[in-house]
Amino acid sequence: MRGLPRNAKGALEKARDCALLAVEVYNKPAIKFKSGGYISLMVIAWTALFHAIFFKRKLKPFYRRESGRFVKVDGDFKYWELDESLRQYYQADTGNPVRKNLEFFIPLRNRIEHRSMPELDGSIFGECQAMLLNFDEMVEREFGARFCLRESLSFALQLFPSSANLAAAIQHSPMTKPVVDFIQQYRSTISAEVAGSGKFAFKAFLIQVGNHKSESALPIQFIHYDKLSDDQKKQLSNFAVMVKNREVPVANPDTIRAGDVAKKVQAGLGNPQIERGGKLVNRFNLAIHTRCWKRYKARPDSGSANPEATDWKYCIYDKRHNDYGYTQAWVEFLIEKLKTPAELDAVCKSEPAN
After folding, report:
1. Rounded distance between C-alpha atoms, residue 329 and residue 227, angstroms
2. For 322, left (φ over 0), alpha (ψ -120 to 50), or beta?
3. What is the pLDDT of residues 100-113, one digit of tens each?
4. Residue 299's closest CA among 346, 249, 258?
5. Which one, of 325, 322, 274, lies nearest residue 302 by Cα?
6. How far is 107 from 281, CA to CA, in rounded Å?
């Protein structure tokens, strides 16, 4: 690692060690919930990798106060977490599939760190594999091939579970439902281009063939889809149709209309009313709801050039119908936020809705 600043060298070593440990955890047969430990370690690995990149570029990945002084916690600098590192590295490139892959794992890690859900392993394998391949490609691009992990790894022996049994386990487990709902919701928010990218989720067919006559032939050969000819891609697509399970997606199944949000929040606040025009009306209504999504930045204004730039935890843009759906988390957020009379008054007195 000659030529690298000491802090960049230390961060890169940490990144590689965590990534190798993540793979070791995932490939241990005795471990049931493989993706749980893998995701936690890979998030650390990616965070350290970005820190190494910033240090190499003579940037300090620490939070600053408005005064410009660095924030310290217990006497040490407060480093950027992975989500902040992504914002700093990719800047305006919000649709990058590598970034979208990592943004999928940050909240997912928070949801699974206190749970054991081995039945989820198969359902997120594609994203987990892409997370590792993207890591190695980033290492090579930023620091050179000599630091890559690929020479240290080999294909793990696998006995894949039945997809039917996996689906049934997920469907009938109340513990996994919130996490499965999050996974489905996140996948529904990304573009078709990102969803189909191998940078977001790696997909492959492993097909048993007869032994090759040549002793030097590799038992498994990895070929990038992008490097196939048009005829080869067509043949693969035809084959994929024959072997894959048919999934019927439902667009935004868990979203709520603005009018229904207003009703739910009004009820959740205890049905407060105010006098207007000589009669009592609901305190929380559609107009106040509009002021809320403006105030709390749940979605962009109508007519925005980037209507999909929502806070996906609370709001999802429907491109086909050119409108927005809201989540149950948004309803709960508003009820909790507006329970404080001062906050509700502030919302009602804020800039009128357009």
Report:
1. 42
2. left
3. 999 999 988 888 77
4. 258
5. 322
6. 39
In contact, 219 and 211? CB cutoff 8 Å: no
Q: Give the CA diameter of the chain.
A: 91
Q: What is the pLDDT of residues 106-162, one digit of tens each?
A: 988 888 776 777 777 777 888 999 999 999 999 999 999 889 988 777 666 555 554
| Token output for 296 | 């709390």
Which amino acid appears at position 35 of this protein? S
Q: Which two tokens stand for residue 164?
A: 């039917």
Token digits of residue 197: 């990218």
What secondary structure does DSSP assign to 42-62, as a single string? Answer: HHHHHHHHHHHHHHHTT---B
Q: Which two tokens stand for residue 7?
A: 């802090």
- What pTM does this model have? 0.60
Which two tokens mark 165? 């049994």
Tell me which residue of 102, 148, 154 sits closest to 128, measured CA to CA: 102
Decide if 236 contacts 224 (C-beta within 8 A): no
The CA distance from 353 to 21, in Å, is 52
How far is Cα 265 from Cα 81, in angstroms, rounded to an integer?
33
Contact 202, 130 (CB under 8 A): yes
Closest CA to 316 of 255, 264, 269: 255
Alpha carbon of residue 128 to chain centroid:
11
Q: Which helix (H) or strand (E) holds 234?
A: helix 230-243
CB 120 within 8 A of CB 112: yes
Query: Which residues, other chains included, contact 41 with Cβ-Cβ below 8 Å and sequence gap of 6+?
Result: 18, 19, 21, 22, 25
CA-closest candidate to residue 120, choices 16, 38, 50, 7: 38
Rounded to whole angstroms, the Cα distance separating 181 from 187 reads: 10
Of 197, 182, 185, the closest CA to residue 101 belongs to 197
Task: Write the CB contacts of 227 (distance below 8 Å, at least 6 apart in sequence).
Answer: none
Total count of residues recorded for the chain: 354
